User: Fold Glutaredoxin from Desulfopila aestuarii DSM 18488.
Amino acid sequence: MNVTLYKSSLCPRCHLARKYLEQLKADQPDLEIEYVDILVSPRRTLSDGVRMIPAIKSGQDILSGIFLDKKTLAAFLDKIRQNSTR
Assistant:
């Protein structure tokens, strides 16, 4: 399963989201994470429909919020996994 994390190196909330996502990856070896820094790739960020960071995108599904905790990220990944098996 491939997901993209949109982040900024200046954002402490993004750092936490990345940490939690990497912890989840340890339990899910099929999880591939692409990192996009919005300061380096602003056009891609906007064209991908991301308006707030941190944000995680898989296909057309986007999860973003002020604070993405590990439980919220795990639920999003489970939803993506269930949708891909249908």
Summary: The chain has three helices and four strands. The chain has a mean pLDDT of 94.
